[in-house]
Write a structure and sequence with these properties.
Helices cover 13% and strands 38% of the residues. It is built from 1 helix and 9 strands. The two termini are 35 Å apart. Bound molecules: calcium ion. Calcium ion binds next to strand 9.
Length: 164
């Protein structure tokens, strides 16, 4: 009985530590440069820029024919339940930028109105928030592609939070 009490206490404590370390309500975090980049996307390292997180940035361009085929995929996103979540995309944009978003192979959504931040070395990043639907379980996928003919933002990090 006492053993069980300690087990529960320890588990609760561990869950609290894990909860604090990933941030309250946060279900996912991934650096863009650590996600799955296909079709010869361009990974801009961000050089020695201190305003990014992780080791770099992903820049898929968009302005050259064929750039629309580039895909940055965030796979195996684990959601605790089916429903609405808030996606927070940390980025840099030095001019008007757009990005195509697909969640779980669904409809393409074009994200626009990225507030301009300048390049990474010029100042802090900004966060683009967008509400998405995820399914319960670890099989959620979010893909991002350039809108062909338009510059993409420099992608730094993707975080997902529960909305309640
Ligand atoms: Ca990064």
């Amino acid at each position: 009985m006492i053993n069980d009490f300690y087990k529960v206490a320890c588990m609760t404590f561990l869950m609290l530590i894990i909860g604090v370390s990933v941030g309250f309500g946060q279900v996912y975090t991934m650096e863009a440069e650590d996600a799955d980049l296909t079709n010869a996307g361009v990974n801009a390292s961000g050089g020695g820029c201190a305003n990014k997180s992780g080791s770099g940035l992903v820049f898929m361009r968009g302005t050259t024919a064929g750039d629309g085929d580039r895909v940055l995929a965030f796979n195996s996103i684990d959601a605790p339940s089916t429903g609405k979540y808030t996606m927070k995309l940390t980025y840099f944009a030095s001019k008007e930028s757009k990005l195509e978003l697909v969640v779980n192979g669904g409809t393409k959504t074009v994200l626009s109105d990225f507030e301009l931040t300048g390049f990474c070395y010029e100042g802090p990043s900004n966060v683009y928030s967008f509400e998405i639907d995820l399914n319960e379980g670890a099989n959620n996928t979010i893909t991002m592609s350039p809108v062909e003919g338009v510059t993409s933002p420099y992608l730094d990090k993707l975080e997902i939070f529960s909305t309640d």
